[in-house]
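Allow me, if you will, to draw on your knowledge of protein folds for a short while. Thank you for your consideration; the sequence and its tokens are set out here:
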Amino acid sequence: MNTSFSQWQNRVQAQAELVLNHFLPPDTQSPELLHQAMRYATLGGGKRLRAMLVVAAAETAAFNQTALSQAIAAVEMIHAYSLIHDDLPCMDDDDLRRGKPSCHKAFGEAQALLAGDALQTLAFAVLSQENDLPPQQRLRSLHTLATASGSLGMVGGQSIDLSAVGHFPDLSSLENMHRLKTGALICASVKLGVLACYSPDETILCQLDCYAKNLGLAFQVVDDILDTQADSAVLGKTAGKDAQNNKPTFVSLMGIEKAQNYANDLCEQAIALVQDLPRNSEILTAMARFVCQRHC
């Protein structure tokens, strides 16, 4: 990882932590246990990939700092809620997340379920707050996140994933599932970054959307590879769960070598889409390489 990207990544991760800490209710505010669970699941961990995508996209033009902070918080809250629910016994039933006990192991299933629900609604409350951007632009951001989070996005992909257990779909079907389950929120992140700018450029938005589609799929392919190769302590979640649950993956469909080559191809396609951007192409290129070369 080059030094400049590493420094930028550290800055954005710290920024995301501060923004989330600001928008999340304090754990001393009633209902205390619920707010403790929300903060437990959201703060102090994770790669903050979605926050980084928001910032990288916003930095392609002049952006509104308030709108940027709202977008960072919103995507990370939606992501945190999805992880809480994903770990529940009725879903993937995982006891470990981000290197510590899953939310339902720490607070019980009922409080974890409510914490996820509360994070989901708080994300939209934060994103709908006033800033200096036009109301239509703020409404477009809300629509972007809502669509990416629902039945035509992340939740829909999770539903397809649950139905696919024990089955062996073809590559196209597997790609479609993960474009929804993983990719939709990644695409929404770059869109929200562009929509946090004073004058959103539709051409850049389209380029970044295609970039994010390739990046989201590459992220999932690498995730499948790591699930078979990495240690739970390194991953921060239980390794080998996909095989244990008989879930279809890019590794089970293609094998590790072909899956890695596929991730690399997707990475190069993503990079090609941002090479001619007037600003921030180096960071976006480094992010693509980070996604494909990560070890956790």
About this structure: The chain has a mean pLDDT of 94. The first helix runs from residue 3 to 23. Residues 37 and 115 are 6 Å apart (CA to CA).
